[in-house]
TrEMBL record:
One of its GO terms (cellular component) is bacterial nucleoid. InterPro entries: DNA_recomb/repair_RecN, P-loop_NTPase, RecF/RecN/SMC_N. The keyword Translocase does not apply. Belongs to the RecN family. Keywords: ATP-binding, Coiled coil, DNA damage, DNA repair, Nucleotide-binding. Residues 7-518 form the RecF/RecN/SMC N-terminal domain. Residues 163-190, 331-398 form a coiled coil. This is DNA repair protein RecN. May be involved in recombinational repair of damaged DNA. The lineage of its organism: Bacteria, Bacillati, Bacillota, Bacilli, Bacillales.
Length: 579
């Protein structure tokens, strides 16, 4: 359960710490007091996206922290272990979230930094929030299949995963087949172009690195005469009296006197001897290089011609020989594909048909499991609605294929294949006996939608083990006995999990185990929201306000007190005793 929620600098909340208990909690207060901000904070804790607009004006960041106390066998611990997040020996889980004024968001679980995806995976196992207008999603038939799959998750999901894996393969080959068919008109034009390019590159007989070698050779051939003059001059300078001859004389002179100061002169003599050998080696290399210098205008012309040929290919196909050859391999592959297009097309159609048949068979299995779940869901929703002042309402989950004239034929109909399956679901209701079943979105009132959604949430709560359920004005559009039935349903739900509800209805508030008053007050020149845990007298006053509005009379107070007493009696009775 949620033990504590701390909020700092979030919208109109300056700083609050709220402690919670087991059971049914109600948050009440005037419109605009900040009740929804508490829900927003829980949403951020559970992984909703943060934004800079949430940060209280004038502050650097908003901070939220929640402490959960969970059973040792709760599935969230396995999820945390899989994600590499450390648990605690006390079975406590702490989530901290910060949103800065620049919009940057960080989250930590038990002190460990986590990303938003990890936070959401953990958060959805801890908190389920029913938004203020979520019941309106029931008006969208495309949402109904998702609700059905949630209900029948254990049986549906394995088949759904198998189906979607097959659908991915099927969709991929459909795209490839479509692309191949779309290229048919351009095939022959492209083949002619590719064949010309292949011949042009192939006939050139290119070798990797050839262009660099030719450029070096051209440089040598272009300057061979100048190089010869320099090499001959250098050779004669080294080999003449001013080169090796001078060094030889210096060596001879030093050899005669080194015995007088060998310590100083021997190193110098060694340097001169080394210089002599180096000059001798340089002279040898210059002579060898001179003998290999080529004066060949014909070869220079050949090199220029070859480089011009390569340059022309570079302008068309790549910056160097290696890129040109890479392009050659690419268009060779494309040519092979185009030349074998008809064969490939037939092969792909055959493979597509096999994948489609397999997909349809899996889709039919998935459909049968869904239809079974649909009947069970309808039965359970009707049972829940009997306790929500809709005892004469009939509900069915209509399952049917989606007709598509361009789709494959299956069971005598042309149907559409989607990633979700080969059929769709739509909730149909008949609010009154004798009336035909009709689309939920077309005939249900806001109050009926709220109660149907509450019935669904009640059913799902028995399956998913989420410890905290939050309802933001789930009682919208109802009053009187219907409001009382919602209050009793929320109280019953709190037997298995912690329930929070924002409400303006006294019938709902009086059934709560714990009530919190949300109100604004002025601190200095700033408005701030505060949260007060109400006890008996405080609850009477708040219920009186909810009943009587601006003027609270003694009669209103008495009525509020009586409502609390009757609510306690209902909760203590065998029918409603759940805690």
């Amino acid at each position: 359960m949620l033990v504590m929620l701390s909020i700092k600098n979030l919208a109109v909340v300056e700083e609050i710490d709220v402690y919670f208990h087991k059971g049914f909690h109600v948050l009440s207060g005037e419109t605009g007091a900040g009740k929804s901000i508490i829900i927003d904070a829980l949403g951020l804790i559970a992984g909703s996206r943060g934004s800079a607009e949430l940060v209280r004006y004038g502050n650097d960041k908003a901070e939220m922290e929640a402490l959960f106390e969970l059973r040792g066998d709760h599935p969230v611990w396995d999820t945390m272990s899989r994600l590499g997040i450390q648990g605690t020996a006390e079975e406590h889980l702490v989530i901290r979230r910060e949103v800065t004024a620049s919009g940057k968001s960080t989250a930590r679980i038990n002190g460990q930094l986590v990303n938003l995806t990890m936070l959401r995976e953990i958060g959805e196992q801890l908190v389920n929030i029913h938004g203020q207008h979520e019941h309106q999603s029931l008006m969208k038939p495309e949402r109904h299949l998702s609700l059905l799959d949630t209900f029948g998750f254990a049986d549906i999901n394995p088949l759904k995963i198998q189906y979607q894996q097959q659908y991915t393969d099927y969709a991929k080959i459909e795209r490839e087949l479509r692309d191949l068919q779309e290229t048919s008109q351009k095939t022959y034009q492209m083949l002619d172009l590719y064949r010309f390019q292949l011949e042009e590159i192939s006939s050139a007989g290119l070798e990797i690195g050839e262009d660099e070698l030719l450029q070096e050779e051209r440089l040598r051939l272009s300057h061979s005469e100048k190089m010869m003059e320099a090499i001959v001059g250098g050779y004669h300078s080294i080999n003449g009296d001013g080169g090796m001859g001078s060094v030889t004389v210096a060596i001879s002179q030093l050899e005669d006197v080194t015995r007088y100061d060998s310590k100083a002169l021997d190193p110098i003599l060694e340097q001169l001897q080394s210089a002599f050998y180096q000059l001798e080696d340089a002279a040898y290399q210059l002579r060898s290089y001179r003998e290999n210098i080529e004066f060949n205008p014909g070869r220079l012309e050949e090199v220029e011609t070859r480089l011009n040929q390569i340059s022309g290919l570079r302008r068309k196909y790549g910056d160097n020989v290696e890129e040109i050859l890479t392009y050659y391999e690419k268009i060779q592959h494309e040519t092979d594909l185009l030349e074998n297009k008809d064969e490939r097309l037939a092969e792909m159609i055959e493979r597509r048909d096999r994948l489609r048949d397999k997909l349809l068979q899996t889709g039919e299995k998935l459909s049968k499991v869904r239809r079974k779940a649909a009947d069970e869901l309808a039965s359970q929703v009707e049972a829940e609605l009997k306790h929500l002042q809709m005892e004469r309402t009939s509900l069915r989950v209509n399952m049917d294929y989606i007709d598509d004239a361009n789709g494959p034929e299956w069971n005598g109909r042309h149907i559409r294949i989607t990633r979700q399956g080969i059929d769709n679901a739509e909730f149909l209701i008949s609010p009154n006996p004798g009336e035909p079943l009709r689309s939920l979105g077309k005939i249900a009132s806001g109050g009926e939608l709220s109660r149907i959604m509450l019935a669904l949430k009640s059913i799902f709560a028995r399956h998913d083990q989420v410890p905290v359920l939050v309802f933001d004005e789930v009682d919208t559009g109802v009053s009187g006995r219907a409001a009382q039935s919602i209050a009793e349903k929320l109280f019953k739900l709190s037997a298995d999990c912690q329930v929070f509800s924002i409400t303006h209805l006294p019938q709902v508030a009086c059934m709560a185990d714990h009530q919190y008053l949300i109100e604004k007050h002025i601190v200095g020149d700033r408005t701030a929201t505060r949260v007060t845990s109400l006890h008996e007298d405080g609850r009477v006053d708040e219920l009186a306000r909810m009943l009587g509005g601006v003027e609270i009379t003694e009669k209103t107070n008495h009525h509020a007190h009586e409502m609390l007493k009757l609510a306690e009696a209902r909760k203590d009775s065998s029918t409603y005793a759940v805690h």
